[in-house]
Amino acid sequence: MGGFFRTAHKLGKPFVIYIIAAFLMIGVFEALHHFPGLAAVNAFGLDHIILQISLLLGGVLFYAGITYLSYQKACADFEKIDL
To answer: Tell me, what DSSP letter sits at residue 40?
Structure first.
């Protein structure tokens, strides 16, 4: 079951877990272009446009896949609860 909307009580734990996960992900992604060989990720203009477009499309596909999995889980949870 999900953390935020499972019940109206005890919202603190899922919120803190989300904040920690988001903070770590943002830290990794902000530091990524400082690693050797990954400077092209932070390129400006059309210097590395193929890399940037491929990363964008990868992100879109990842987002669509995670959204689909979330939808499937929500449908299964709704069938269990179905008021």
So the answer is: G
Global pTM exceeds 0.85: no
- Tens digits of residue pLDDT in 36-46: 888 888 888 88
Contact 68, 62 (CB under 8 A): no
Six token digits for residue 11: 């919202």
Other CB atoms within a 10 A radius of the CB of residue 40 amount to 13
How far apart CA 42 and CA 32 sit, in angstroms, is 9
The answer to whether residues 19 and 27 touch, using CB atoms and an 8 Å cutoff, is no
3-class state of residue 5 by DSSP:
coil
Concatenated DSSP letters of 48-79: THHHHHHHHHHHHHHHHHHHHHHHHHHHHHHH
